[in-house]
Amino acid sequence: MIEDLRRLEEDALAAILAAVDADELEQIRVRYLGRREGLVSGLLRRLGSLAPSDRPAAGAEANRVKKAVAAALEGRLEQVSATEVHGGGDPDLTLPPRRKWRGTIHPVSRVIDDIWAIFRSLGFTRARGPEVDSEWYNFVALNTPLDHPAADEQDTLYLGRGLLLRSHTSPVQIRTMELYPPPIRIIAPGMVYRRDTYDATHTPAFAQIEGLVVDEGVTFVDFKATLAEFARRFWGPGTRVRFRPSFFPFTEPSAEVDVKRVIVREDGTEEETDWIEIMGAGMVDPAVLENVGYDSERYTGWAFGMGPARVALLRHGVRDLRLFYENDMRFLAQFA
Question: Which of 19, 21, 200, 288 is most deeply packed, by most CB within 10 A?
Fold first, then answer.
């Protein structure tokens, strides 16, 4: 049988070399490598009639012949195609080559990784929670009553029976505090879902990053110092940070955190940007601590939440959030 395979290989290689177009090569491929009527397949079906001791060698030789014929077909097809394209002459080496697409990390994922790396170096651990959660974890435990505007059906995607697609990553705070006693220092990236209009600055499904610190003696000074250090590491040492009073049901006091960056132009000159909001944050409301069984007289904490997609917008100077989600390789290739 091995001799038959070798003769078959010689015949196939000779036929491939003599082929003049792609149609003829396809006929040769079907004749020799076709699954049903192919000559190599026909020989393989005879393996069962061989002595058990002869089958391994015959099978290995059959695989070698298949690979050799397939490689010869591929090589000859490239030659024939080049001849057809260039009219039988030499290929035009001045044409730009075709490049294969190269995969890379998505710009939003890269921002998440960079943020995580900074907080990990500050002693944070990573936490996660379910994307389908209950009203208790998404609202009530976070000091947000169900008659609050944030819990309205126009803003939240309800699934029925008290379940919903989480509208922020803050439920991970509650689940973590239920499982572990203080001290807690976590960061929780994940997808969240809202009934937002899909436009240049909003999308109904997006990534969010939550941070939480709870311990004895945690103060507003710790809160400001940690987030200011994060901003300087992420945006650059010359970054200025501003905390504006705000309101969130689960933090008191609450703040919007803004940054003012220094951009270095190609000519070496520096330009300072306007104030840009990057996150909402604040000291954890005592009611939230009590909802998980913590002693709010003993423990204090702070938390923040930010959208890495918007941070990616600022980092790369992109004006439309939708560009990150449309899978246009011409756009995404810029971040390879």
Answer: 288
